[in-house]
């Protein structure tokens, strides 16, 4: 029973860290979406966002 409690504690810490990471990622994504909506849509705004998340940004901008 005791090792199970320890495992549960580790799982809780792991889920907490995962929740923190997802929350920070979602906030960053929301900020990017807001910035994309504020900035005028065009080749300049699309070219500035070059990187691993460029595909998602180009998909949101259309």
List the helices and strands and how they pair.
Elements: H1 2-38, H2 43-48, H3 54-61
Describe the structure.
It is a single chain. It is built from 3 helices and no strands. The protein has 62 residues and is an all-alpha fold. The chain has one domain (2-61). The radius of gyration is 19 Å and the shape is rod-shaped.
Q: Summary?
A:
By secondary structure, the chain is mainly α. It has one domain (2-61). It has helices spanning 2-38, 43-48, 54-61.
Q: Any descriptors?
A:
Serine--pyruvate aminotransferase, transaminase activity, 0% strand, transferase, aminotransferase, mainly alpha, 62 residues
Distance between the ends:
54 Å
Overall geometric form: rod-shaped
Biggest sheet descriptor: none
Total strand count, please? 0
Roughly how many Å is the radius of gyration? Answer: 19 Å
Keywords: Aminotransferase, Pyruvate, Transferase
GO molecular function: transaminase activity
Protein name: Serine--pyruvate aminotransferase
Organism: Giardia intestinalis (Giardia lamblia)
């Amino acid at each position: 029973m005791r090792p199970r409690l320890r495992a549960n504690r580790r799982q809780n810490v792991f889920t907490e860290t995962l929740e923190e990471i997802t929350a920070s990622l979602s906030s960053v994504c929301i900020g990017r979406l807001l910035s994309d909506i504020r900035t005028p849509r065009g080749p300049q705004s699309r070219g500035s966002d070059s990187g691993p998340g460029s595909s998602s940004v180009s998909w949101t901008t259309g």
